[in-house]
Amino acid sequence: MDLMFNLILQHKLLDYCQVEAQLNFLKKETQNYTSRCATEAKKLAEDVEIETHNVDIVEREVADVQETSKLKFQETIKQNEEEIQICAWEHYALVDSVFELRRAHGIKNFRDEEQPFRNSRSSIRFLQRLLVSAVCNLPYGNSVAWVENGIKMSIRLTMEHGMDLKVEWKFVQ
Fold this sequence. Notes:
This protein has 173 residues and is an alpha+beta fold. 71% of the residues lie in helices and 14% in strands.
């Protein structure tokens, strides 16, 4: 019986050693896996931190570009408003000088001469008709100059390349 008991005991001891070896192996594998996961988590955290930093930089750059664009846009609007004011003044001066020119040369053949301009297109058509009429009343290559409100204005009408009409306006302050 002792022999049998020893055999059973050896067999159990062998089983125990195998189980212990498996447990040690699993423990080591678990530690390795945990270590790899911790390393991976640390790397991911560093990557997130780097990307967060990059996003912050990009956001600052976007804010700078947005602010610069806003300032440029406001400056462009200001410049455009100034140019519009200048063009409006020049348009007014041109219309006024054309009326003066018309009166000076006695041009009276306009249907809507006393009607206010409905829009810029109608005023352009009016000015075109006025210039054509003025050309008919001025000798070839003639020019007219006058001073109005301290501004010297002149118009020179010439024919170029056959029938092309060249109109030169000058506003000198």
